Amino acid sequence: MLPDTLASGESAADKNQKVWIFLKDKGPRALAKDAAALENAKARLTTRALARRAKVLAPDALIDQTDVEVYQPYLDALSRHGLKPITISRWLNGLTVKATPEQIKAAQQLPFVDKIQVVATLQAPPAPRVQPEHGSSLQKAGAPHRFSYGPSLTQMEQIRATDLHDAGISGRGVLVGMFDSGFRWQAHEAFQHLKNRVVAERDFVEDDEVTRNETGDRADQDNHGTQTFSVLGGFQEGQLIGPAYSAHFILAKTEHLPTETHAEEDYWVAAMEWMEQMGVEVTSTSLGYSEFDFGQTNYTPADMDGKTAIITKAAEIAVSKGIIVVNSAGNEGDDNWGIITAPADGPNVIAVGAVNAAGNVLGFSGRGPTADGRIKPDVMAMGIGVQAVVTGSVSNYTFVSGTSFSCPLTAGVVTQILSAHPGATPQQVMNALRSTASLANSPDNEFGYGIVDAVAAITALGPAFSNMPQTSAGNGTINVSTKILSRDGIAPGSVRVYYAERNNSNFLTATLTASDETTYAGTIPRPSSDTAHVKIYFAANDNSFGEVIYPQNAPDEAFLVRGDGVLVDVDNPPPTPPTTFVLEQSSPNPFRVSANASATIISFALAQAAPVSIRIYNMLGQEVRELLSGPREVGRFEVAWDGRDSNGRLLASGVYVYVIKTPQATASRKLLLLR
Question: Do residue 302 and residue 417 come from a single domain?
Answer without folding.
Answer: yes
